[in-house]
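2024-03-11 09:14:02 DEBUG pipeline.ingest accepted 1 chain
2024-03-11 09:14:02 DEBUG pipeline.ingest length=327
2024-03-11 09:14:03 DEBUG pipeline.predict start
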Amino acid sequence: MSNNNILENSGVDPGSSKNPIRILLADDGSEHARAAVDMLKDLPLPSDTTVHVLAVVPTIDIPRHSMLEVSLEQTETSLKESGIRVATEIKGGVPAATINDYAGRHNPDLIVIGAKGLRATLGILLGGVAQQVVEYSTCPVLVVRTPYRGIKRVLVLTDGSFHSQCALVYLGAEVKDATTIQAVCEARLPLPSDAQILLMHILPPIFSADMAARSWMVAPDVLFPMPLEPVDEKSLQQEEQKQGQALLDDAQNALSSSGYQTKTILERGDAATEIIKYVKANQIDLVVCGSRGLSQVSGWLLGSVSRKLVHYAGCSVLIVKHEEDHS
């Protein structure tokens, strides 16, 4: 299947890019895959952007092969109606491995994949295929969940790390040290011009001197801590808040330079817990974050906060990864 239609942009959207984006869409015929198609149609994609739609099926599963052919035809028709270039393909093999192998050979700027339903064994709202693609891909991955209600409220997470800066640049922001980041993050993914961008930074939980003293307990013994200089906890918290807000202000200025209207949110506590709580309380449609934060071990392919968000946020999540994550 092929198409000859090209998306023609009539205006300039925030974060828009003149360069086409290479998108790999994994289509398994599920309702989540249909939601992924709808989300792509709502993005102001640059002209000449091509969506490569890939379906993977075990070679012996003839009935599923026929079902996926029908699904691909529906996907192709739907995307063409929005003027998007489409190329479709069915391959045999293990889904996650085949998708990542295909991405490794074709170097897409984005992988889009639908989340599955509840996994009874783990209670995780993410299919095994999507989970493996997110973990081992070398480019940004967008995991789309149903119900899809459009891209109205987008929560962008920042902690000042290189990976969160990459996420901002991927959305079209002009950040400090952009030259270094652009070396590993050349593509730009524009969001709808009417989307509300919420920038969030999470301060660490408060760890009082009393808690520190009690942490010296080891097994049945108690070790008495060495005397420490008095600490002005209030001043420390105020300084943390000041630094956190400065970080948010920098991110806000970076995104504003690309035309986005943004709002900043500063919270304190366990990062994943606070983010997920905010997502559920404020009807967030999409969370955007880097693959790892400041506190992550460099050898991990995906940070613990990013992994929890993909599993438990309950909305679509864009993890901005790049080749350097695997070096």
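2024-03-11 09:14:41 DEBUG pipeline.report Residues 22-204+239-326 form a domain with the Rossmann fold fold (CATH 3.40.50.12370).
2024-03-11 09:14:41 DEBUG pipeline.predict end
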